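Lab manual, section 2.4: Encoding a predicted structure.

Procedure: take the sequence of the chain (195 residues), apply the prediction step described in section 2.3, and record the output as structure tokens. A sample record is shown.
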Amino acid sequence: MRVLAAYTDYELLAAIRNDDEKAFSELFKRHWRGVHSMAYSKVRSKEVTEEIVQDLFISLWDKRGSLSINNLPSYLFTAVKHKALNYIEAELVHKKYWDYSRNYLPQQEEGTETMVDFDELMEAIEAGMDHLPEKSKRVFRLNRLEGHSVHEIAGILNLSEKAIQYHITQSLKKLRVHLKDFFITSSGILMSLLF
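Recorded output:
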């Protein structure tokens, strides 16, 4: 029997599709450094990089039964780049709305409590968005978090304005249910995002 180190990536993927954990371990050992370097070059955080790399390989294992990858290094680098950019985008959105909250909403004396409440709210919104279909999530992010109009989003995503409106409506319905506990102490940001 051949040693796994002698397997090509294609052979390792075939073995992984058949639930071979040792082949997966070899694939991880072979590629984690490059993936780690790529993620770190984007996010510049050891903890976030480790989380991205872990998520990527867990996802690869979870989808092993349906893997159809022709060029593994290219797939891994594209996937890690996408995960890193999603993280950066989420951080920018978080910063944008924290800056908005700090500058434009009435200031409260309990600054630390407000910051904690805001962080919890943004985490809850992000968690709620994870339950949306990918296209609805993208439309919601473009519209409510980045401020693009329905017309602009239709151009960006090459969809009809009616389709964009549908995705916004569905996203809002689902997120209102997900965030119902925040309405008790709702902030201006929550109201502006969901109404």
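Check your result against the sample. Confidence is low (pLDDT under 50) at residues 108-112, 184-188.
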